[in-house]
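Dear colleague,

Thank you for sharing your sequence with our group. We've completed the structure prediction you requested, and as agreed, I am returning the results in plain text so they can be pasted directly into your records. Please verify that the sequence below matches your submission; if there's any discrepancy, let me know and we will rerun it promptly.
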Amino acid sequence: MTTEFRKLRWAIVAAQHRSLRQAAEILNIRQSTLSRSLRDLELQFGAILFDRTNGGTRPTEAGLEFLDAARRIVDETEAIAARLKTRSRGESGRLTIGVHSSLSAGNLRATLLDHRRHFPDVETHLVDGSSDYLISDLDSSAIDVAFVAEPNSRWRDRSLLIWNERVVAALPENHPLTGRDMVHWGELRHEALLSSQRGPGPELLKLLISKMGCSDPCQLLRHDVGLDRLLSLVGAGWGILLVLESATGAAYPGVTFREVHDAEGPTRLSFRAYWREANCNPSLRPFLDLLRERYPDLLADPGVE
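Please find the predicted structure tokens below.
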């Protein structure tokens, strides 16, 4: 605290108590030190700020005007200092997060809600995009952290394995496969599948090709639209759509969801959080700490960070 700022605070306390002795006790300083500080202010501003009598110390008219301005300066300065302290601890500020899966259900939605409860003063900005788009944004510092379905061979910086999501088939409600408890990959071979380059579409297509064992496993109907429009097309009977379980939290007319299984059971797609080690945004570290706290079981994974 600078000397001048301290003198302003001392003058405000002296005016509140109207007793140099009581004010000095509150400030834990000598009464003579406080008296000398008030005289220094009066000399500096060329005005008598306090009337000193046997009955106490009271502000003059000039003193009242001075104290009004002093309170504004002190209050604003202390508010700025408090904001800067919370920002340096990551408790306020702005955090830009890249996502490419649905937020209608699942771990990502729960994580964002938990972070908002813990850090309500952090402004969270979401950026949607494909895996490659988000990695490019991360590399250029346009975003702070990205949640991307792994693997992504382009990234050479920090990452954290966080969770996995089951793969689900979105079916028209009158489709024969809705009569099953689950769908097997082989049953999709002769179906029309909707596909998109947005969101996790490319990762799901790669997964489909690997499960089918060929580069042209079925009829693909490609559309450059978002998830909600694709699911609307499913409800209209245009085809089947592979999605992740996080997309099943919202209801779409005419759409039924079934898990997709292989011989070992449900098929899952893992997710990682990606970020730059050199990122200096104070809000990022508490967010990463929250991830580690929420998903501790995956920290033993040899590929972590």
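Summary note from our side: The chain has three domains: 3-88, 92-163+270-298, 164-268.

Kind regards,
the structure core
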